[in-house]
Structure formats: structure tokens, C-alpha cells
Write a structure and sequence with these properties.
InterPro entries: F-box-like_dom_sf (IPR036047), F-box_dom (IPR001810), FBXL18_F-box (IPR047948), FBXL18_LRR (IPR045627), LRR_dom_sf (IPR032675). This is FXL18 protein. With 706 residues, this protein is of the alpha/beta class. It has 26 helices and 22 strands. The longest helix has 16 residues.
């Protein structure tokens, strides 16, 4: 009786959720997807029925990663709260039929609309925009068959008031740009392939009837990102031609991201000369050919710059200090800096320097002092070797940047120089990583539990100290300077990879364990760490980094064997918040034990495995998909036969597509000649965010689009 009375007393003293204030309840409800709020939660009681329709919850509706939403839910949502929605983000909702867009017309008060990745025809776009008279911000895709002549006068009137436009082009076209006469922000993503599906070569010439001139007179931000291919370069030059005639006076951000070689022409040179004379910039990114060997940076003027990207440029450290940092007077405002692939950016001169030579620590120190408010820094894809000078190691200097939220470094930059001098790399690590005969290597035993690992760590290690000083870091990338993914874009898969840098040979389990100090880590990328022997550091990360959502591991340890599988499986059992997992490792065995461990990741949504000569067990994959109900993307590029891959893909789609409308499955032999044709059908959201390997730190200016 005493026990029962005590339990009743505890129940009576318990806090009822409905007794919380409206402010607290609204804050709690803000974490619930809008579709659940409107279609489910508000039907539970009168109080929640009122709160779920509060303006703070219905003003902005985000559907871009609500993978459970379908056409009927969108229809009901728009019917119930359409008039209350001012901002609607449906980016990447590739699974919704194009007829879903018709229901957006109920949102009469829309100011911002993002339909990137959605299926929208010219006629549907015209009908929808004709009713959205308050629209000021728009994001759409321009696909083959788009015809601007089908846009009604009412639609063009709406577009004339749009000040922000994001346009992804899959075909040579101006899209709706000529109709947007009040543009202040223009973002262009060029995803045009060189060949059509039928195999015909495409031309960068615009379609007949699309020779209207864009209106750039009010432009403040111009951003263009090009996928590989000459057609994309031809089309972007047509967009830039108008800018070269007359540079907008209010232009303060000019950014062009172009892979490979993008030659400068007379028109682009005139544009840059005009910018140097007439504008003061806050953000800059240019193709490497436009900067290399020119004195452009010496003439450009900057106001309060917040973003610079000199990716792949041959910019030397002295030029960086003199022409960009300007003695440290004007760079306190800089929050994002991308020096990826700038092999000489931390050296005084590049003329007689080898890429593997030591950096000049004084240049990095000037950079750190001048840009003390940096939040995003990318130094990957280069050999940044520190000298033996005490206190001047790259990691020691970077530890002063207390505001960093994301950081990308080459593997060879984090090695402890003193440790390398005293103890050269083991002979086993110097074995060439080839696909020839395997060499049997003795494996050193490492502790598997946290206590032993902590006891063995080197307290004086510069990388341990760096991780300890960056407590609020959310994104970390440690990538080998010579690493290249086996799955490049628009090209056949790479069959061989370059060996890691000699300085990187000692980087392994203890450095990985140091990362576990980052309590707030959300995204981690590790690629080409040659001295991974057991992967014990991964377990530390799984236990202590409980906010980890994205994990990408590639080519860890010796190439001929998956040495860290046991540790990885132990790690995955602790990753309850993990949503995206990408693994790239030759000879990877995706078997029952791996998928059983992966099933502990209850929040997992996207899985990508890239493995040359890798194998998989179809039954294990099917069981994993049945147990992990949140998984909507499964990409596997392995060494299995085409028949095995097709049968498994069809089985997954047939079994789970009905309950998971957003399900996207691609299982295909990695070295098959038709891989590029398969890749082109992958939704851009998945392709860009997880399937293709790349460094994402400071890839774009922060908050470029909402």
C-alpha cells in the first residue's frame, strides 16, 4: 500500500506538458515538421489546435528534407494554411509529381519560394506565378523543353518584381532571367551535360527565341557554379557578356566556381577591369585562370569582405598578404576563406618552390591575426608541411581561431614534426599501395576502450591541442593531399590512386581519437589516413560526438584490406543521430555483420558505399532496409556483377517504394562503362551532398540562399 500511494503521489506531482506556457510550447513545436503539426498534432486537443496554427509556425514551411511528405499531404497542407505561408521551401522534393505544384497557387501571400529539384514545366510555372503577386524570391530548375514563350503576361509581371533568383540549368537557356527586371541577387547553377541521352553533342548556343538580354542594372550578388563540361562554360559566357558591357554600380559579390580550365577572354577581361574601376566587393571567387599570373587582385577594391575563395589558384603567400589581406587592416570582417588546392598560399614565393616544401609560418600567422573572426577555413588539397620551429606548427597557429565552425585540412599538415624526426614511419606504411600482390604486414595492437586510449595519447601532440582548443567546431575534414575519389563526375571510375604524402604516413588511430574532443561535431570527413591500424579512434568519436549527423570515410589504412571494420561497427552502435553515411574503401565487404551494426543508427536516411572489388550480401541489405525505416537513399557502387546489382535494386524498390515515396536506389558496378549514364539520373540533392566526394568547407559563402 505504501508503494502504491508513493507512485500515486509521484503521478500527481508530475508536470503535464499542457501546463507549460505558450512560449515554451511554441518553441517545442518549432522542431516538429510542419506537415505533422498541421495534419496530426493539432488534432490532439484544443490548445494544440490553436498553437499549431500560430504565425510563428506557419509563416515559413520547410519541406525540403521531409522525405515522408507526399502529394496528398501537400494538398491538405496548402488547403489548411496556404494563406498563412509567406516562405515555402520545397527544394529537392524530386519524388513529388509535377501536378503537386498546382497546389502552391493557394499560397497567395508567398514572398519566398524554392522549387529547386522539383519537376516544373513552363506552363505550370506560368500558371503558378500568375497568382503569386507578392513573390520576391524564387528558385527553379530549367530543364530540356523549357519554353519562355509559354509564360503569360501575368507571370512575367510577377517575375518583374522578383529581386532574388536561383536558377539551375540542365539545358542551354536564359530561363526566366530576362523577365526579372529588378534582380538584386542572381545565383546560377550550370548542370548541362556535353551529350544528350541519345549521344548527340550539345551546343552552348541558346535556343531560338531566347536572345533576350538579362537585366543586371540593380544586381548586388552574382554567383555561378559550373559542373564539368565545355557547354557550361559556353553558356555562362553568354550570361557574363551583358555584365562586361555595363558593370552594376551596386555589385558587391562576384563569384564564379568553375572546375578545371576556364580560360579568360577579352569580354571577361573587360568585365574585371570595369569591376576594378567601379565597384568595391565584399565577396570574391574567380576561376584560377583569371587570377594566375595577373595583377587583378592588386587593382580590385574591397569594402568589408566576408568571403574569399582562391581555390586551385597558384597564389603565393606574399601575394595573399600584400594584395588580399592588405597588412591586416581590412580583414576583421572575413568569416569564410577557401584556399583549397592553393599549394603555394603559405609560402613567400611560388616560382622556385616545390609543393612539398615547408610552409612559412609567418604568413600563416599574419593570416590568423588579420582574419581573427574566421568561422570557415579550407586548406585542403595541398601539402602544408610545418617546419621544426617550436611554436610555429600549423595546428598551433590555427588554435588561435576560436570562432571556427568548420575546418578542412590536408592529412600531412596535422602530423607532429618532432615525432616524425624522432620516430620515422614504420616500414609497413611505406609499402606502395597498388593492386598487385598483397604484402602481409604485422599489425600493431591498439587499445579498444576509452580509458586505455586516453592513457596512451600524446598530451603534447599539436593536433590533440588543436582539437582541444576548437570546442565548438561543427564540421571537420581531414583529407589526404593526393586523394582522389574512385567515382569522379562525368568520367569513368578511377582504377588506381596516388600514394599518400610521406609526411602523412604517421597519421592514424591516435589522431582520429583526438577528434573525439569535439563535443558539438556534426559532420566528419576522413580520407587517405594511411596509418589506421585498428580504427580504435572511431569508437571514441562514436561515444563522445553524440551530435554527429554526417560521416564520410575513404581509403583509411592500407588499401588492400579493410582493417578498421570491427572498430567501425562498434562506432556505429553509438551513432544515434547519424543521418548520412558515405564509405569509400576498396575490397569492402558489405555483409550481415556490417548491416546489423548499421541498423543501430536509427536516424540514418542516406547510405552511399563506393568500393572497387567490393562485395555485398543481398539478404543483408534487404534486412537492413526493412529494419531502418528512415532510409530513403541507398547508393552502392561495388564490384558485383550487373545482374546481381539490378536484381537487388529492383527488390528494394519493389519492397519499400510504396511506404517511402522519396526512396532513391542506385546499385551498380563501379567500373561499368555505363556508370556516367546512371549517375545523371541521380537527384541533384543526393549527388551533390553525399554521392560525389568533395570538400564542402567554405565551398560557398555562408547563407548564400535560405
Amino acid at each position: 500500500q505504501e508503494i502504491v500511494s508513493r507512485e500515486n503521489e509521484e503521478e500527481n506531482n508530475g508536470v503535464n506538458l499542457m501546463e507549460f506556457s505558450d512560449e515554451i510550447l511554441l518553441h517545442i513545436l518549432s522542431y516538429v515538421p510542419c506537415t505533422d503539426l498541421v495534419l496530426n498534432v493539432r488534432r490532439t486537443c484544443r490548445k494544440l489546435a490553436t498553437l499549431c496554427l500560430d504565425k510563428s509556425l506557419t509563416h515559413t514551411v520547410l519541406l525540403q528534407k521531409d522525405y515522408k511528405v507526399n502529394k496528398d499531404k501537400v494538398k491538405q497542407l496548402m488547403r489548411d494554411i496556404g494563406k498563412e505561408i509567406y516562405q515555402l521551401n520545397m527544394a529537392g522534393c524530386y519524388w513529388l509529381p509535377s501536378s503537386t505544384i498546382d497546389h502552391v497557387t493557394r499560397c497567395k501571400n508567398l514572398v519566398k519560394l524554392n522549387l529547386s529539384g522539383c519537376h516544373v514545366t513552363s506552363l505550370r510555372l506560368s500558371k503558378m506565378l500568375s497568382t503569386l503577386q507578392h513573390l520576391r524570391s524564387l528558385a527553379i530548375d530549367v530543364n530540356p523543353g523549357f519554353d519562355a514563350s509559354q509564360l503569360s503576361s501575368e507571370c512575367k509581371a510577377t517575375l518583374s518584381r522578383v529581386s532574388e533568383l536561383k536558377q539551375t540549368l540542365y539545358t542551354p537557356s536564359y530561363g526566366v532571367v530576362p523577365c526579372c527586371t529588378s534582380l538584386e541577387k542572381l545565383l546560377l547553377y550550370f548542370e548541362i551535360l556535353n551529350r544528350s541521352r541519345e549521344g548527340f553533342m550539345l551546343s552552348g548556343q541558346l535556343m531560338v527565341g531566347e536572345s533576350n538580354v538579362p537585366h543586371y542594372q540593380n544586381l548586388r550578388i552574382f554567383y555561378a557554379r559550373l559542373a564539368p563540361g565545355y557547354v557550361n562554360q559556353e553558356v555562362v559566357r553568354l550570361y557574363l557578356a551583358v555584365l562586361s558591357d555595363r558593370t552594376p554600380e551596386n555589385l558587391h559579390a562576384f563569384l564564379i566556381s568553375a572546375p578545371g580550365s576556364f580560360a579568360e577572354t577579352g569580354a571577361t577581361k573587360n568585365l574585371l577591369d570595369s569591376m576594378a574601376r567601379n565597384v568595391r566587393l565584399d565577396a570574391l571567387q574567380l576561376p584560377k585562370a583569371w587570377i594566375n599570373g595577373s595583377g587583378l587582385l592588386q587593382h580590385l577594391k574591397f569594402n568589408n569582405p566576408f568571403y574569399f575563395s582562391f581555390s586551385r589558384c597558384t597564389l603565393s603567400g606574399s601575394h595573399l598578404i600584400q594584395r588580399v589581406i592588405n597588412g591586416g587592416k581590412d580583414l576583421k570582417s572575413l568569416t569564410s576563406l577557401n584556399l583549397s588546392g592553393c599549394v603555394h598560399c603559405l609560402a613567400p614565393e611560388s616560382l622556385f618552390r616545390k609543393a612539398e616544401d615547408d610552409i612559412d609560418s609567418s604568413i600563416l600567422e599574419s593570416l590568423v591575426v588579420s582574419c581573427c573572426n574566421l568561422r570557415h577555413l579550407n586548406l585542403s588539397a595541398a601539402h602544408h608541411h610545418s617546419s621544426e620551429s617550436i611554436g610555429n606548427h600549423l595546428c598551433q597557429l590555427l588554435s588561435r581561431l576560436k570562432h571556427l565552425l568548420s575546418l578542412a585540412l590536408p592529412v600531412c599538415s596535422i602530423t607532429d614534426v618532432a615525432a616524425n624526426v624522432e620516430k620515422p614511419p614504420m616500414a609497413s606504411n611505406l609499402v606502395p599501395q597498388t593492386l598487385g600482390r598483397k604484402v602481409r604486414i604485422g599489425v600493431q595492437t591498439y587499445p579498444r576502450n576509452l580509458a586505455d586510449q586516453a592513457n596512451q595519447k600524446i598530451e603534447s601532440s599539436v593536433f590533440w591541442a588543436l582539437m582541444g582548443s576548437l570546442r565548438f567546431l561543427e564540421t571537420l575534414e581531414i583529407i589526404g593531399s593526393s586523394f582522389s575519389s574512385a567515382m569522379p563526375r562525368n568520367e569513368p571510375a578511377i582504377r588506381n590512386s596516388l600514394p599518400p604524402c610521406v609526411r602523412a604516413q604517421s597519421v592514424g588511430d591516435s589522431e582520429v581519437a583526438a577528434i573525439s574532443q569535439l563535443t558539438y561535431l556534426q559532420s566528419l570527413t576522413l580520407a587517405q589516413l594511411p596509418n589506421i591500424l585498428t580504427g580504435s579512434g572511431l569508437i571514441n568519436i562514436g561515444v563522445q560526438c553524440q551530435h554527429l549527423r554526417t560521416l564520410s570515410l575513404a581509403n583509411l589504412g592500407t588499401m588492400g584490406k579493410m582493417v578498421y571494420m570491427s572498430a567501425l561497427m562498434d562506432m556505429l552502435k553509438h551513432c544515434k543521430c547519424l543521418r548520412d553515411l558515405r564509405l569509400e574503401q576498396p575490397y569492402f565487404c558489405a555483409g550481415a555483420q556490417f548491416f546489423q551494426a548499421l541498423s543501430h543508427c536509427s536516424s540514418l536516411q542516406r547510405l552511399c558505399i563506393v568500393s572497387r572489388s567490393g562485395t555485398l550480401q543481398s539478404d543483408a541489405v534487404m534486412s537492413f532496409m526493412a529494419n531502418c525505416l528512415e532510409v530513403i537513399m541507398c547508393h552502392m557502387f561495388m564490384g558485383e556483377s550487373l545482374t546481381v546489382c539490378r536484381n537487388l535494386q529492383q527488390s528494394i524498390v519493389r519492397s519499400f517504394q510504396a511506404d517511402r515515396p522519396a526512396l532513391n536506389v542506385v546499385i551498380f558496378p563501379l567500373l561499368h562503362e555505363d556508370l556516367t549514364e546512371i549517375i545523371r539520373d541521380v537527384p541533384m540533392r543526393h549527388l551533390d551532398e553525399i554521392t560525389l566526394f568533395k570538400s564542402r568547407v567554405a565551398e560557398e559563402p555562408p547563407n548564400l540562399w535560405w
